[in-house]
């Protein structure tokens, strides 16, 4: 059941309002406990008391003694401003019950100082007013006005300060509650946000700044507020410039040329209006662009023109290349058969597909470019490159690549790869149905899930050790079920089985009407991936480290050694003691036969890197070396290089980042519009996608404030479920509406930047959240067991009928910040601003995917960074991409080379030299003989590694020297007749190759600069 955005926003506004009211005590008039420890919003503590804390400005942020406004005086300055201050007090009576006073409200007409000086006003008036109503003689406040003449123009600072005595009296705590300051007749000029440079696309103006609070500004009226709320709008993919253009899967599968030409024509027509030289000069006058900004806009216009050319070239390819046209049609037919809730492409997706069709035919030049899909999270990046992969897969089959890997898609995080697997499986299953219907020869389109052994097995041993999968255990297969439903028939009819004859761990669909007819073409055991070489492999980035240890990985980037004659055994590799004939099926004695196709066709077409901005610091530096290794090995084996595709929702210094990672040029699609919210491929709609609410708790810990928010949200939902709140009457809803709102706003996500924060939160959830019934919680962090992750995701997607049995709170770390697309997650409480803006953008994008969501950003206001973001929170949300920090990464680190050199050298032995040898090279004795026979030349190997890393003798002399020294010691150890080494990996002077790229994160500090 769907529900309107209007009803969702009504409900969100109501929830946020209730939280705010609860946070400052506006709904209460008496308490049994001291209110200073209950409320976390709207409080102003006595100035003397805050000063005695000895924390300076930080203390005033943690427990403010004032709230205020600062703004720039305009040229037409008013002579005076009208200032009104209001607040409540809480007083304890003889029965030790705290009671709230009526609202105190004081109004002042204040002359604006002519020069730099300060005015204090109202102390006596406020003191007298409080005494008359309460009898208190020690509680007061005042208005202070300061004129700052150091800048241009002058700045006016107006604050409302609690001047009460610091001493705590028996019947008063001296704190002003629900405090507010309003200013009328405040003629002002905007500030220009200094944290951001000028740009023709963005507005840097800020009308006024709050002091220990937020501000609302309308014309000459300014008001302090306890919450800063900023909306983020959904992109509109079907605006006026795109109406009547058919981009449906059906239309593009039948007559793509006409549709694609219509899209290109619309893009050109739009560009003529937006990017012409005359129009840019008009914008310059309208928006006050500087000459530099105008030049920047003209350069962007050239980027638009290049994008038009690429799309036009893609259309020409469709028209002239019969196989490309057929592949494109079959891909669209496959997308139509996905069975998903959509049946059409978004315009930017088709634009990207057309712009990159050339990578299928001009592989040599296209391999020099990394194409990045840059679009907001939730825009459809995954489907975009899925479309290109399927086109490439059909193209491979049509031109004779009957088996082997077309694409290897890698994700930085385990959660990401798990979440995306079902999407990939669905797409490949749909394509497999179309392949069979069109009688296209070759192996089935298949998917491999290639991750660490903590999630899926590397192999199924005949005699398993403790912790390894046991083929004789009937329950073993069920431990590795990854697909939630069959990708062919889309039903929950999958059972797990271990096929002992073929030695395969299988996902089997038991639906007799399913097109799959049994075992699904889905492989999760490493050995099976090497044997059957799935069309697409999806997995985690760190699995690339296996290349230094696993000779069978050769099949992913190049040709295997042969094919087993035993039916269903697949490809064969180097001979080993466990696999004497090279077949990875235990006990197989069949002969090896030639490969079923040309060796060079085994080279993969694409390496995909999702969320490319996460490859930074030590992880990015180490991966850069492994990317070079993958490139050099594939080229030496197949004379081809893979095209690299990337995706990201954030970009900062991407050109340099891509150069360091891949030694390639970077190209981004799509080009942005003249204004950030007015592009061709999408514009901002009027639909709210997400509300961001900034909160700075006052006088209490952040953890306490989070407990109070979670408690309030959970109580509200429970009272709605139990009919204790007539929400239908309050918001004019039906019972069906209410049921849906409870479903999509009844689960809260608490996002923490550190495991310590999350552990503290989990303890609080167990003891501090007092609600009716159980509070059901779960965690999604890097420490969460794989089966728990699957179980939690399933419970979120398929909630229990009874609300009290559902999951109510999810604590999550950065593991969840990418690729989690769950419509039921729409409320997030963030424990402090993450250390990087990209993480903030990605993590908050987990809510509000389908329905409007909201995020409480709990600022750790004592930290300078959080305080700075709180100060300009609206711009931080509005222009988040511009706040993304430079990416720290370098491939010129000797410490990193120390960790990667073993894999760089040993992988060449097992991938390049072992196939040339008549024997395996797994022992020191055999490798020594191979070297003595002059089949491996030390200087040549060193040169190959230097070239693969593209090192420059002028700037990389130390790295080149390290490589030479390493190989010199390696060969010396190899030839040492007194050595006790048995295996080549033991000869490495820097230790064994890494087993995971993440092994380096604590051990290899990065030495280098930031990408700017």
How do the strands and helices of this protein lay out in sequence?
Elements: H1 5-24, E1 30-31, H2 47-52, H3 56-62, E2 66-73, E3 80-88, E4 90-92, E5 98-100, E6 104-111, E7 118-121, H4 123-134, E8 141-148, E9 155-162, E10 177-184, E11 188-189, E12 191-192, E13 205-206, E14 209-211, E15 214-218, E16 221-225, E17 228-236, H5 249-254, H6 256-274, H7 277-287, H8 291-320, H9 322-336, H10 347-355, H11 363-366, E18 369-374, H12 381-398, E19 407-411, H13 414-437, E20 447-450, E21 494-499, E22 504-509, E23 522-523, H14 526-532, E24 536-540, H15 554-557, E25 562-564, E26 571-572, E27 592-593, E28 606-609, H16 617-638, E29 643-648, H17 654-662, E30 665-669, E31 683-695, H18 702-721, H19 727-731, H20 735-745, E32 748-752, H21 755-767, E33 777-780, H22 786-797, E34 809-812, E35 827-831, H23 837-844, E36 853-858, H24 864-871, H25 873-878, H26 894-916, H27 924-932, H28 938-948, H29 957-975
Parallel strand pairs: 18-29, 18-30, 19-24, 19-28, 20-23, 20-24, 28-29, 31-36, 32-34, 32-35, 33-34, 35-36
Antiparallel strand pairs: 1-5, 2-9, 2-11, 2-14, 3-6, 3-10, 4-5, 7-8, 8-9, 10-16, 12-13, 15-16, 17-31, 21-22, 25-26, 25-27
Helix pairs in contact: 1-18, 6-8, 7-8, 8-9, 8-10, 9-12, 9-13, 10-12, 12-13, 16-26, 26-29, 28-29
């Amino acid at each position: 059941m769907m529900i309107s955005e209007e009803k969702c926003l009504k409900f969100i506004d109501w929830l946020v309002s209730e939280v705010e009211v609860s946070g400052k005590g506006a709904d209460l008039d008496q308490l049994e406990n001291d209110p200073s420890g209950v409320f976390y919003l709207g409080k102003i503590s006595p100035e003397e008391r805050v000063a005695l804390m000895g924390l300076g400005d930080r203390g005033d942020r943690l427990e403010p003694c004032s709230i205020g406004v600062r703004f720039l005086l305009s040229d037409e300055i008013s002579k005076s401003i009208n200032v009104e201050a209001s607040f409540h007090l809480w007083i304890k009576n003889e029965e030790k019950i705290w009671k709230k006073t009526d609202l105190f409200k004081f109004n002042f007409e204040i002359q604006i100082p002519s020069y730099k000086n300060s005015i204090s006003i109202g102390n006596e008036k406020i003191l007298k007013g409080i005494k008359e109503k309460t009898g208190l003689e020690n509680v007061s406040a005042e208005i202070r006005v300061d004129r700052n003449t150091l800048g241009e123009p002058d700045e006016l600072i107006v604050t409302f300060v609690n001047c009460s005595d610091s001493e705590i009296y028996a019947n008063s705590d001296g704190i002003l509650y629900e405090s507010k300051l309003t200013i009328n007749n405040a003629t002002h000029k905007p500030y220009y946000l200094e944290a951001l440079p000028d740009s023709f696309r963005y507005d840097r103006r800020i009308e006024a700044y709050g002091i220990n609070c937020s501000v609302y500004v309308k014309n000459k009226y300014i008001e302090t507020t306890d919450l800063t709320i900023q909306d983020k709008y959904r992109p509109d993919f079907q605006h006026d410039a795109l109406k009547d253009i058919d981009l449906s899967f059906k239309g593009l599968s039948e007559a793509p040329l006409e549709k694609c030409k219509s899209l290109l024509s619309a893009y050109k027509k739009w560009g003529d209006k937006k990017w012409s030289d005359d129009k840019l000069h008009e914008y310059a006058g309208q928006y006050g662009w500087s000459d530099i900004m105008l030049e920047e806009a003209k350069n962007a216009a050239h980027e638009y023109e290049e994008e038009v050319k690429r799309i036009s070239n893609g259309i020409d390819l469709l028209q002239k290349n019969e196989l490309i046209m057929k592949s494109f049609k079959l891909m669209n037919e496959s997308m139509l058969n996905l069975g998903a809730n959509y049946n059409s492409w978004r315009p930017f997706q088709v634009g990207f597909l057309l712009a990159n069709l050339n990578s299928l035919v001009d592989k040599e030049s296209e391999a020099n470019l990394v194409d990045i899909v840059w679009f907001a999270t939730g825009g459809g990046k995954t489907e975009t490159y899925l479309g290109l992969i399927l086109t490439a897969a059909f193209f491979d089959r049509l031109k004779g690549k009957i088996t082997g890997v077309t694409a290897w898609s890698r994700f930085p995080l385990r959660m990401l790869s798990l979440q995306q697997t079902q999407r990939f499986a669905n797409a490949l299953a749909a394509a497999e149905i179309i392949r069979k219907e069109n009688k296209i020869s070759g192996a089935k389109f298949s998917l491999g899930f290639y991750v660490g052994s903590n999630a899926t097995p590397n192999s199924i041993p005949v005699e398993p050790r403790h912790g390894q999968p046991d083929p004789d255990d009937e329950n073993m297969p069920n431990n590795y079920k990854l697909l939630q439903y069959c990708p062919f028939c889309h039903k929950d009819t999958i059972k797990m089985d271990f096929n002992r004859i073929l030695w395969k761990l299988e996902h089997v669909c038991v639906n007799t009407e399913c097109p799959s007819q049994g075992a699904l073409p889905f492989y999760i055991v490493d050995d099976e991936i090497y044997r059957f070489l799935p069309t697409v492999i999806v997995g985690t980035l760190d699995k690339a480290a296996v290349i230094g240890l696993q000779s069978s990985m050769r099949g992913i980037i190049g040709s295997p050694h042969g094919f087993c004659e035993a039916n269903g055994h697949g490809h064969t590799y180097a001979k080993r003691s466990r696999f004497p004939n090279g077949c990875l099926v235990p006990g197989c004695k069949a002969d090896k036969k030639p490969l079923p196709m040309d060796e060079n066709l085994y080279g993969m077409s694409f390496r995909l890197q999702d969320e490319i901005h996460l490859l930074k610091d030590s992880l990015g530096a180490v991966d850069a070396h492994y990317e070079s290794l993958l490139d050099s090995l594939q080229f030496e084996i197949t004379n081809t290089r893979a095209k690299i595709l990337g995706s990201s929702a954030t970009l900062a210094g991407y050109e340099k980042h891509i150069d360091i990672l891949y030694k390639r040029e970077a190209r981004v699609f799509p080009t942005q519009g003249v204004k950030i919210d007015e592009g061709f491929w999408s514009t901002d709609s009027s639909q709210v996608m997400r509300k961001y609410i900034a909160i700075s708790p006052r006088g209490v810990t952040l953890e306490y404030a989070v407990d109070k928010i979670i408690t309030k949200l959970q109580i509200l939902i429970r009272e709605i479920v139990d009919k204790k709140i007539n929400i239908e009457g309050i918001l004019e809803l039906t019972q069906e509406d209410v049921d849906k709102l409870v479903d999509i706003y009844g689960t809260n996500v608490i996002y923490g930047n550190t495991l310590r924060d999350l552990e503290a939160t989990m303890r609080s959830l167990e003891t501090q959240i007092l609600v009716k019934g159980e509070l059901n919680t779960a965690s999604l962090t890097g420490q969460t067991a794989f089966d728990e992750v699957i179980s939690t995701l399933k419970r979120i997607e398929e909630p229990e009928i009874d609300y009290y049995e559902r999951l109510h709170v999810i604590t999550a770390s950065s593991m969840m910040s990418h690729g989690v697309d769950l419509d039921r997650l729409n409320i997030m409480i963030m424990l402090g601003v993450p250390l990087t803006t990209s993480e903030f953008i990605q993590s908050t994008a987990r809510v509000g995917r389908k329905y409007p969501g909201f995020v409480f950003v709990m600022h750790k206001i004592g930290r300078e960074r959080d305080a700075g973001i709180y100060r300009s929170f609206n711009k931080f949300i509005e222009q988040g991409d511009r706040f993304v920090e430079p990416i720290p990464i370098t491939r010129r680190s000797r410490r990193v080379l120390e960790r990667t050199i073993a894999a760089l050298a040993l992988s060449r032995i097992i991938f390049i030299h072992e196939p040339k040898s008549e024997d395996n090279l797994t022992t020191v004795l055999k490798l020594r003989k191979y070297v003595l026979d002059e089949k491996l030349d030390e200087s040549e190997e060193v040169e190959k590694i230097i070239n693969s890393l593209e090192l420059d003798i002028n700037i990389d002399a130390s790295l080149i020297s390290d490589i030479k020294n390493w190989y010199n010691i390696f060969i010396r150890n190899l030839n040492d007749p007194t050595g006790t080494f048995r295996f080549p990996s033991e000869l490495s002077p820097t230790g064994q190759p890494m087993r995971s790229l993440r092994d380096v994160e604590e051990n290899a500090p990065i030495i280098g600069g930031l990408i700017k």
